[in-house]
Amino acid sequence: MDSIKAPRGTRDVLGDESWKWARVLDVTRGVADDFGFKEVMLPIFEHTELFSRGIGDTTDVVEKEMYTFIDKGDRSITLRPELTASMVRAYLEHDMRHLSQPLKLWGWGPMFRYERPQKGRYRQFAQIDFETLGASNPLADVEIIDSSMEIYRRLGLSNLQVLINSVGCPKCRPAYRDTLKAYFESSAHELCDSCRGRLDRNPLRILDCKQPACRALTDNAPSVIDSLCDECREHFATVTQGLERLGANVKLDNRLVRGLDYYTKTAYEILSGDLGAQNAVCGGGRYDNLAEAIGGPHVPGVGFASGVERIVITMEAQGAYLGNEPKPDVYVISSVQDGTYDAAVIAHELRESGLSADMDFMGRSIKSQMKIASQNGAKFVCVIGDSEAASGTAGVKNMATGEQETVPRGSVVENIKNKIS
């Protein structure tokens, strides 16, 4: 019988990597606290309508990538492909408008999209998500972008660039849509099949296409900046000026529209020069009409999402500090028959005192246990052999210096704690 493996596009994050994720999340949590964002934990699946109405029926996410199923109550359910729509749904459902505004929320967890697996991109992937809800001020956009940059700064990343654009608003976007449609119609035969379908429904999506032929056609496409209304133009100018005053490396990208229909005004990505073709470590922007799209009142919002896998890959590529792999302070060794009871008690006492401790459960020899302790990176070993058991003592060895001594059984914890401190 063939063994069962993880589904294509998923992966196991094992113990030799999970501590790197812990580093990313610890730093993220610190940035969230410093910027005033409160952590929330939201459902992994939602009613499909939340995403079809919120993200947009013509997006690749909704058309091609969502994991959707009918549950036992005959309801259409979707594993969340992103977190922003869920954040806004929670904001509305719990009537957070009555709290002090703006409300700053953040969360993280697994997302699901049926995409072609490649380096740094999986069908189940982890994302960090920051959202500011209730503020239309363009400086809220600046702060969101600054908070994402601050995460990467604290993680030690470099060679990062902010790509930014405006996608307008419902007042000025229709005219730009018409301009784009007219531009692409003369070359419609050169567009890929997906983009030919987008031409009537949503020509802005063509700008986001990664097919070479479509990318070539978008090189000279009309810029949305030229079609912005006064409000959007002023908003965009304030955002870009604010980022420049913060010293951010900012570049205008006329093709940047992001892949979701809820964006209005600001759209941005942060790119790393060390990831090759898939070089975006972060993406986000403003979405002032998302709450209304899912049945709520008008609630302006701005936010970003960043893939944990992408962050770790970038940190590895740049040699950034990834934290320390957890290693035991003490490895407790016993060669006495039934000595595992004594070893277990000592390990328990060490852990109670705030030290990390491990021990053998396989009945290995002292030599083998010492080897395991060394492989695991233990700072000290505590040995209970026949003579130590008879005399009520224990051997304590400093694995770095090789120094060892015999101490009374009741002084083991204090002795090791003093040495470590």
Outline:
The protein is of the alpha+beta class.
Secondary structure layout plus pairing:
Elements: H1 15-35, E1 38-39, E2 45-47, H2 48-54, H3 60-65, E3 67-70, E4 76-79, H4 84-93, E5 103-112, E6 124-133, H5 138-154, E7 160-166, H6 173-185, H7 193-201, H8 212-218, H9 230-245, E8 250-252, E9 266-272, E10 280-286, H10 290-293, E11 301-307, H11 308-318, E12 330-334, H12 340-352, E13 357-359, H13 366-375, E14 380-384, H14 386-391, E15 393-398, E16 404-408, H15 412-420
Parallel strand pairs: 1-5, 7-8, 12-13, 12-14
Antiparallel strand pairs: 2-4, 3-4, 5-6, 6-11, 7-9, 9-10, 10-11, 14-15, 15-16
Helix pairs in contact: 1-5, 1-11, 5-9
The radius of gyration over CA amounts to 28 Å
State the fourth-level CATH superfamily of the largest domain: Bira Bifunctional Protein, Domain 2
Spatial arrangement of strands, main beta sheet:
1-5-6-11-10-9-7-8
- CATH class type of the largest domain: Alpha Beta
Query: Low-confidence parts lasting 5 or more residues at pLDDT below 50?
Result: none
| Number of domain modules | 2
Class per helix and strand makeup: alpha+beta
Taking the sheet with the most strands, its summary is:
8 strands, mixed
CATH topology of the largest domain: BirA Bifunctional Protein, domain 2
Name the beta content range. Answer: 15-25%
Q: Mean pLDDT, rounded to whole units? A: 91
The first-to-last residue Cα distance is: 54 Å
Name of the CATH architecture of the largest domain: 2-Layer Sandwich
Shape: elongated
Number of strands: 16
Q: Bin the helical content.
A: 25-40%
**Helical stretch count?**
15
